[in-house]
Write a structure and sequence with these properties.
With 370 residues, this protein is of the alpha/beta class. It contains 13 helices and 16 strands. 37% of the residues lie in helices and 21% in strands. The longest helix has 18 residues. It is globular.
């Protein structure tokens, strides 16, 4: 029997830490572990405190000690020590970026294995630190054998990737379709409707600056015959609640997985009103689409408008444009036929392009260098 390919997945954190990238790396690790010719390990950091080793679904998770998270990156000396050891074990390492600690550890270790980068986003918020990080990042991109991006938008909107187009492979994020085929989901939104005849609008995500929820609430103020449901929490919650005062806006907080799927299935229109490039893809769009829901998103230069397509699976409007967003909401709210058409197209798109089984086989081939 041939020796197994040793794959090391590297990221800041791993579930139960909540985040889109953390969801992706867990999906990667779990799928790869099912291939008989692959052995996978995961190297991440703690948010703060002592490191620990554990096995989750038979996968080794090495969580390195950390002094805390500063400028969105954990600070860990142990990470460099563990990486040096694991880089000798690995045949291929997949780095989930942005994660400056990972770049630096790889360059300092002078590891000889294949390097695959899963590029999730540019560094958006930490612009001052980017000046210092940029030379390291460029050197790391030169070292990489393959750079995986989820959409063409990730390449075109990046400050760094166009120079390395020849290394880029476009493989979108996938979702486990079977996980959404759940019987007896609750009418969780319908139960909370003040007017049972109104259209149910849904947003799911953190209540933070780049999500554009303030724009959504302002647009909603001029929409008729609808109620808005917001799932998630975040630093802007008090401000947003004040902005939504005396309107039919329901703040649902963080929901369980079952209740969240119930919300996706029960809504009439899903809205992702993101306003900054920190929103690189928007997996929540796929989660609404699998339930046959039309999506309203924004024309960010990232991967967002590549997921749900304008006038095919929903509507796309300019970021921060309150009037355009209100108009798009009202257009779909007023037409059950259009909602049905876009919703059906949305579900088909997920099955055709975003089935995680198909996606992960493409990742497998890249890691195997096939």
């Amino acid at each position: 029997m041939n020796q197994k390919l040793h794959v090391l997945e590297v990221n800041k954190f791993y579930p139960p830490h909540i985040g889109g990238i953390e969801t992706v790396i867990a999906q990667r690790a779990n799928y790869l572990a099912n291939y008989p010719d692959i052995e996978v390990k995961v190297l991440v950091c703690q948010e703060r405190g002592k490191g620990k080793f554990e096995k989750i679904n038979h996968i080794e998770i090495i969580r390195c000690s950390s002094f805390g998270v500063y400028f969105s990156c954990p600070v860990s000396i142990e990470f460099f020590i563990k990486f040096q050891k694991l880089a000798k074990w690995a045949d291929v390492i997949e780095f989930h970026m942005p994660f400056p600690l990972g770049d630096l550890a790889c360059l300092l270790s002078n590891c000889k294995c294949r390097v695959v980068i899963a590029w999730h986003s540019d560094v958006i918020k930490q612009k001052k630190l980017l000046k210092f990080y940029q030379p390291i990042l460029k050197k790391f991109l030169k070292k990489a054998d393959v750079i995986i991006t989820a959409t063409q938008g990730h390449i075109d909107s990046s400050k760094f990737l166009p120079e390395f187009r020849n290394k880029c492979k476009i493989i979108p994020y996938g979702i486990e379709i079977a996980n959404y085929n759940i019987n007896n989901l609750k009418k969780i939104l319908t139960e909370k409707l003040e007017n049972k005849n109104f259209i149910k609008l849904l947003f799911v995500g953190r209540l933070v600056y780049y999500k554009g929820v303030d724009v959504l609430i302002k647009a909603f103020a001029s929409v008729k015959n609808c109620e808005l449901f917001l799932c998630g929490t975040g630093v802007l919650e008090p401000e947003l609640k004040n902005l939504a005062k005396n309107s039919a806006v329901h703040f649902l907080g963080n929901l369980s997985d079952y209740d969240l799927k119930s919300a996706f299935a029960d809504c009439d229109i899903f809205i992702l009103p993101s306003v900054e490039n920190s929103e690189a893809f928007g997996i929540v769009q796929q989660e609404a689409m699998i339930y046959g829901k039309p999506v309203i998103n924004t024309s960010l230069p990232t991967g967002v408008p590549f997921v749900s397509i304008h006038e095919q699976t929903g509507l796309t409007v300019a970021p921060k444009n309150i009037q355009a967003l209100a108009k798009a909401i009202q257009k779909l709210a007023d037409s059950s036929e259009l909602r049905k058409l876009y919703g059906e197209n949305a579900k088909k798109r997920v099955y055709e392009f975003y089935d995680s089984k198909k996606i992960m086989h493409e990742i497998y081939k890249i890691l195997k260098n096939n």
